[in-house]
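Q: I have 257 residues here and want to know how they pack in 3D. Can you give me a structure?
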Amino acid sequence: MSQFAINLIFVGLSFALYFGIAIWARAGSTKEFYVAGGGVHPVVNGMATGADWMSAASFISMAGIIAMGGYAAALSTAAGLLLAISSAISHDLIKKTIKPDISEKGELMAARASMIVAIAVATWLGMNPPGFAAQTVALAFGIAASSLFPVLMMGIFSKRINSQGAIAGMLVGLVTTCVYIFLFKGWFFIPGTAMLADDASGWIMGINPLGFGPIGALLNFVVAFAVSAMTAPPPKDVQDLVESVRYPKGAGAAIDH
């Protein structure tokens, strides 16, 4: 049996164990996804889980510690991201925006469904990576840079950016970056679906698909400012929130100095 098959079996049995535990102790409410009454962020909770794995690995040999360290890092990151994705979709998107009257059971089902979709997408990308590890990380950061980074920056340094501008900018940056990448890497990274040659001769203006993130971020900034300028400014309470982020309470003496 090949090492790859052994790895797949080991990972599959691990996830089967986790699913078994989850089904046996399944939550009855989305509140049970959080610890300390919801006072601990899912990402921090995932980091604590990773710390538990590391402490368990300390009882194994040095080689085991190194191996379990990487395994724990992957699991803790995946756990934190899955909880963040599920809570963002079920609570922030569905509960607060799309369907405010959704029941606790419905919110919980939405969280579980979003987890399943996220796992399926991650599994597909793991089996069909767009490149080696460094390229994949660069790709992920490029997509994040074109969609999330401009909004975070504008949300801190500009009180004129409203929700319409932020959403429009994110969509333009994300769609533009993804389409450019898919043209060279294949649609959704499916082998054989690339429409342009993935080399310097085929790249538009010589821009590597894995380095298109800054261009997408620039488009994000431009569209966000343009749409915000053509629509109503954000409410006063939102502008006050931005101001409080810039100048926290108690910082008056330092600011006046």
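Q: Anything worth noting?
A: The longest helix spans residues 62-98. The two ends are 70 Å apart (CA to CA).
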